[in-house]
Amino acid sequence: MKQTILIKTVNIKRLIASILIGIVILFLMASLFVTSMTDTKSYYVHQWFEKFSTDGFIKAIQLENGHFNTKQSLKNNGQTINSLFFSLLTNLRLNDTKSLLVQELSSMSKFDNNILVAGDGTDFTNLPIESSLTLDEINKDPNVDVNKIEDQPITPTKPPTHTTNGKNVFLIYHTHSWESFLPLIPGATKPNEATSSKVNVSLLGERLRKKLISNGIGAIDDKSNIGNELAKRQLNWKSSYKMSRLVVQDDLQNDKNLNYLIDIHRDDARRDVTTQVINGKSYAKLYFVVGVENKNYKKNYEFAKEINKEIEKVDKRLTRGIFSKNYSNGNGVYNQDLSPNSILIEVGGVDNTLLELYRTVDLLGDILANYYWKAEKVNG
Questions:
Q1: Using alpha carbons only, what angle is made at residue 300 by residues 294 and 304, rounded to the nearest 5 degrees?
Q2: Total Cβ atoms within 10 A of residue 263
Q3: Does 122 fall in a domain?
Q4: Which residues pair with 172 in a beta bridge?
Q5: Within 10 A of 164 (CB to CB), how many other CB atoms are there?
Q6: Of 81, 104, 127, which one is at a domain's C-terminal end?
């Protein structure tokens, strides 16, 4: 019996068409992936590389490129390559004990901040901490008599030699509008009790506004109740920057002259960290936060650095420094993409008195004013 062998022929045209369609689909998928990653920027590359031993990574390059080798470096190749592979396998850095703590204790990630400029007394033990609050804690209204809050008059100064001619160029706002101070709330003793929708950091914003005006600079203090807006939408405190962003964008839309954005907060740290006595007078210490996840990062950092430098000229002990935050340990942007002249300032802590806070804000107002007029002179 003869067996019939069937040979299935392949349609060459159909095969080529299938390959071409597959390539097109592959390119489309790649483009969609790249487009969706536009917001990741260089942060994730940094996050990946920071897990590795720097020396080990350099040695890995030297293995491939002989031009990088020196007699001294060749002696330690084995040791540093080992540290690179150890970092790859464990996400730990041999020269950084903190990497072990952050890896094993989730709460330690709060302390994984990058200190851009170390201020007086700033170290790993007293890095800024952002507390998490419930909507009830944010929007609680303690029994505070606003009329009893003593307003400290601003020290009279000479009439300003320059003015913005009625134009408002500074916008002061408060993303965490509920942040208050224990001395202003009767019976409050714990940091989480330092919240109020009536008596809060907006007092500092208003003080700064008046100080800028006394220097001839128009300013607005937006006292929007962010906590209330979060409650209306059933959002938690982590959405506060999204909410304040809407407020700031609305202000910028209504007044095209606004160019400097100042977000005033207060830290959760206690009095020993946030207070400094100078010439017999107590001041609230401050620090700056710069978000690295935005196009204006470098300019905002330069802005913060200049203001910090001027504060140090008055007294180095007044500033706790400048900190950067990314998506992993904070908001990462802090609305600072809306202006190259945007900074977040933490003034004092939960234990500071209004007088201590006002002294620091008055000083800050004069420094911001001097910075503005110098910048205007250069630009003019």
A1: 145
A2: 24
A3: no
A4: 221, 262
A5: 20
A6: 104
Same domain? 81 vs 188: no
Cβ atoms of residues 211 and 365 within 8 Å: yes
Q: Which residue has the tokens 């998928």?
A: 29
- Residue 264 and residue 205 in contact, taking contact as beta carbons nearer than 8 Å: yes
Q: Where in the sequence is the domain holding 77, given as residue range(s)? A: 43-104
Whether residue 64 lies inside any domain: the answer is: yes
Tell me if residue 28 falls in helix, strand or coil: helix
Predicted local confidence at residue 132, as pLDDT: 76
Q: How far apart are CA 248 and CA 377, in angstroms?
A: 27
Mean pLDDT lowest among 155-164, 210-219, 239-248, 333-342 = 155-164
Number of Cβ within 10 Å of residue 300's Cβ equals 27
Three-state DSSP class for residue 209 = helix
Sheet arrangement for strand 341-347? 114-118, 319-325, 286-291, 341-347, 260-265, 168-173, 218-221
| Nearest alpha carbon to residue 376 among 207, 209, 170 | 170
Does residue 43 have a pLDDT over 50?
Answer: no
51 lies in some domain = yes
Distance CA 341, CA 329 (A): 23
Q: Which two tokens stand for residue 327?
A: 């998506």
User: In this structure, which long-range contacts are made by residues 370-375, counting pairs with CB atoms below 8 Å and at least 24 apart in sequence?
Assistant: 370/310, 371/306, 371/307, 371/310, 372/169, 372/170, 372/217, 372/260, 373/162, 373/215
CA distance to 30, 36, 120, 152, 270, per residue, from 280 (Å): 64, 56, 18, 18, 20
The candidate with the shortest Cα–Cα distance to 191, out of 84, 272, 267, 259, is 267
Q: What is the arithmetic mean of pLDDT over 123-149?
A: 74
Count other Cβ atoms within 10 Å, centred on residue 56. Answer: 21
Name the residue type at position 12.
I
